[in-house]
Amino acid sequence: MKKLFFSLLLLCVVSVAWANYGEGSIADIEDFNKRAIDFVVFTIGGAAFVGGGAFAMIRLMMHKEDAFQRAGWVIAGGAGLVLIRILWNVMQSFAGK
Fold first, then answer.
1. Which of 7, 62, 69, 96 would suit a FRET pair with 25, their CA atoms being 20 to 30 Å apart?
2. What is d(CA 80, CA 66) in angstroms, rounded to the nearest whole number?
3. Distance between CA 86 and CA 53 in Å, rounded?
4. Cα–Cα distance between 23 and 29 in angstroms, integer?
């Protein structure tokens, strides 16, 4: 959860930095945020979800004690990745978009 919070905080800082640089318009910043979130969710997140799932399944086959806990974290991470886009839309609606 700390990593997710840090990632969102970093994305906000980068967005503000880009907003203060040059003649960037709001549409450019929104486009940057959308592309950054899509990259994190679909590229990095998908690879991490598949890799984590494979790692958890291997540990399940080896009858390791913490395999179910790791599998649970992989499922929770996958659900978090799905919810990122929804949470972003909610934050935009609170901001008046």
1. 7
2. 21
3. 23
4. 11
* Buried-state track 34-45, b at ≥16 Cβ within 10 A, e below 16: eeebeebbeeeb
| C-beta separation of 77 from 48 below 8 A | yes
The span from the CA of 89 to the CA of 85, in Å, is 6
Domain ranges in the chain are 2-94
pLDDT per position as a tens digit, 4-39? 777 777 777 776 666 666 566 667 777 777 887 788
Count Cβ neighbours within 10 Å for each residue of 75-85 and write b for 16 or more, e otherwise: eebbeebeebe
